[in-house]
Design brief:
Keywords: Kinase, Repeat, TPR repeat, Transferase. One of its GO terms (molecular function) is kinase activity. This is Histidine kinase. It holds the Pfam family TPR_8. It comes from Oceanidesulfovibrio indonesiensis. The structure is a single chain. The protein is an alpha/beta fold. It has 4 domains: 147 residues, 3-Layer(aba) Sandwich (Rossmann fold); 92 residues, Serine Threonine Protein Phosphatase 5, Tetratricopeptide repeat; 85 residues, no CATH class; 84 residues, Serine Threonine Protein Phosphatase 5, Tetratricopeptide repeat, CATH 1.25.40. The protein is 69% helix and 7% strand. The chain has 22 helices and 7 strands. The strands form 2 sheets. The protein has a 5-stranded parallel sheet with strand order 2-1-3-6-7, with helices on both faces. Strands 4-5 form a two-stranded antiparallel sheet. The radius of gyration is 27 Å and the shape is globular.
């Protein structure tokens, strides 16, 4: 695309966002601890779009998100919520569902790093309007916001118009819009979906099913046509066909607990007790996994309260948090392992800390932070050989690991000094001073070598 066309597109997206805030009285509720993302958003709104930052409402506690949306809705007509996929160590799928159930017009954008596709599919299914993979630039952020709040381009506007006509039961008019959509894009799954809704509204059931099937065939990952077909056959009392489409949905989004229960219920009705029991067990296991994540988060929070006042009780609650997960431990538990290790080290139990960090490594073997914490524990036990071995392993995984923070670089230097590896120690202490020239402890140690 030529530079001028790109500039025109960016300007179009900018105008959409500006209109959303100024004319549409729009606001952004931001639930994240990621200061980099918040900074990019604030710079985008304030510096690039020249709009006051008072349209941005930050939330730091997941328990206050719904309250923030409710309070903002009293002052603002339109709201877009940015929310981390995992916020305060807790999966936010339940919160997304709550937001969408309570405020159907609110748009939700999930902030995420790398994650399994099934998680994103589930979030999309329960109401997420868009996703942002971090880090993100200002221009891409503006584009993401623009596409979330308003259809961009002719076909997007026609689709939106068609949906509104179906909602107002103007089915014949909706079919006219569908013809325009299919003239532009003959294989438009969204167009065929509107066609199916319009024919269903007109009582033309066979044509509705055909349109939904066509929509599904043109977009195999598009779940809406399959949902429409499952709903259609539920209304018709056709258990076999409803089950067929629920099974297709389950293959696309296998983490949906409620759907597994629905499928099991149909098997009970059809007399397939064994199949029903398998599905019910899967539903319970998935629900248990989600519940355990929440219980772990609560136990971990209690551990944090005790951390400085009573490290022994902190250890008790951190261990309880991990034990509750049983064989369902995953990378989301690494933070709890790290907190447990720190609490043990505060009691001088460095060997136990090493054991816990090594358990964490079975879940996340490529985590350089765990190797660094193991090194600190060995250093506290005055085993400098093993401490430096683990620091070296951390650097193998991430050669720039020590450059993220002057204190980390200093700790590397201190451990290598105690291990009598002076040349290596100097490199790390110089790195600490390059990150913080006024770091007196690093300078003093470097001068002593």
């Amino acid at each position: 695309m030529a530079a001028s066309k790109i500039d025109m597109k960016i300007k179009q997206y900018e105008n959409t966002v500006v209109d959303y805030i100024r004319k549409g009285n729009g606001a952004f509720v931001v639930a994240t601890h990621d200061t980099t993302f918040v900074s990019v958003l604030r710079n985008t709104i304030h510096k690039q779009l020249a709009i006051s930052e008072d349209c941005i409402i930050s939330v730091m506690d997941e328990n206050n998100i719904l309250k923030a949306v409710r309070n903002t809705s009293q002052r603002r007509k339109n709201i877009l919520v940015f929310i981390e996929r995992v916020f305060n160590n807790k999966e936010t799928a339940f919160l997304v569902r709550q937001i969408k159930n309570a405020f159907s017009e609110v748009k939700v954008v999930i902030l995420t790093g790398e994650t399994e596709r099934q998680r994103l599919v589930l979030l999309h299914e329960i109401g997420a309007d868009n996703f942002i993979s971090k880090p993100i630039s200002m221009n891409i952020l503006i584009e993401k916001i623009a596409f979330t709040i308003k259809p961009q381009g002719k076909i997007g506007k026609l689709i939106e118009n068609g949906k509104q006509l179906v909602s107002s039961e103007q089915y014949e008019e909706a079919l006219k819009i569908v013809r325009q959509i299919l003239n532009i894009k003959p294989n438009s799954a969204a167009g065929f979906l509107i066609m199916g809704d319009a024919y269903k509204g007109l009582g033309k059931k066979e044509k509705a099913v055909e349109a939904y099937e066509t929509a599904s065939n043109h977009a195999t990952m598009y779940m809406e046509p399959l949902k429409k077909l499952a709903e259609f056959y539920e209304e018709e009392g056709d258990h076999e066909n409803r089950l067929r489409y629920l099974e297709k949905l389950d293959r696309l989004s296998p983490l949906n607990v409620e759907r597994k229960v629905d499928m099991g219920g149909i098997h009970v009705t059809l007399g397939n007790e064994d199949k029903a029991e398998i599905l019910f067990d899967q539903a319970i296991n998935q629900a248990r996994k989600e519940a355990m994540s929440y219980i772990e988060e609560v136990s971990s929070k209690i551990g944090g309260i005790y951390e400085k006042h009573d490290p022994e009780k902190a250890v008790k609650y951190y261990r309880r948090a991990l034990e509750l997960k049983g064989d369902m431990l995953d990378k989301s538990d690494i933070k709890t392992f790290n907190l447990l290790g720190i609490a043990l080290r505060r009691q001088g139990k460095w060997r136990e800390a090493v054991d816990e960090y090594n358990k964490a490594r079975t879940v996340s073997p490529e985590d350089e932070n765990l190797l660094y914490n193991i090194a600190l524990a060995y250093a506290e036990g005055k085993d400098m050989r093993k401490a430096t071995e683990h620091l070296a392993k951390a650097l193998e995984l991430n050669p720039e690991f020590h450059m993220q923070d002057p204190v980390i670089a200093y700790n590397f230097g201190l451990i290598y000094t105690k291990a009598r590896k002076t040349d290596d120690a100097k490199v790390f202490l110089e790195a600490a001073l390059s990150l913080n020239p006024g770091f007196e402890k690093a300078q003093k140690l470097l001068d002593s070598l």
